[in-house]
Input
Amino acid sequence: MPPLIGISCSVDDEEKRLKLNSSYLQGIEEAGGVPVLLAGKEETARAVVARVDGVLLSGGVDVDPRYFGEEPHQALGEVSPARDAFELALAKEALRLGVPVFGICRGAQVMAVAGGGSLYQDLPSQRAQSMQHYQRGPRSWQSHAVSVVERTRLAAICGGQAELRVNSFHHQAVRSLPPGWVTAATAPDGVIEAFEDPGHPYWLAVQWHPEALYPQDSAARALFFAFVQFAQEVSSHAR
Ligand code: MN
Output
């Protein structure tokens, strides 16, 4: 049976609407997974995690800094309280149960915070030497390089490519990772662009948007295929 992959959505608290860029869904489908969209209360998050074979945490607005013990910086962007609560509960439960998780952009930030890490609330003002990480160009434009760290899951997925070109639509970034987690890619300015938890069955996050580079970019394609393949193996062992 193809693996069931839960995908988190944007939650518009004011308009009572859920939103998801359909390219996340297509990425999972292309790779052979069955996507299901996830949203709701924290209790729902905890109840649904064990029923899917993997979770894709999608991109979106800023993570509320209260979750890493800070007050809002003046350059903090839009936040979504309902989405923060749902996704953090989802990520913490997936971390505890060993459910495979692939995080993209905001998803990476949610994963880091769920594990006890911290974020830059705004790169341009908190890390003055940073390059431009919020590109002004099409979503498929690969604006900057990243160096892949050897002997990581990401390196294996990318077939040993030492450098990738990626798109970049973030002004937040991971500042510190929880103990034991490893950086899997960095931008030329040192910003963490991918990380993993080697102690978890599958816990990989990227700061860029592979769903928008799909299918022309081989690394983006490989990221979706590796994740769905892993979820498939876990799923078939469990049944
Ligand atoms: Mn970037």
User: Anything to note?
Assistant: The first strand starts at residue 4 and ends at 8.
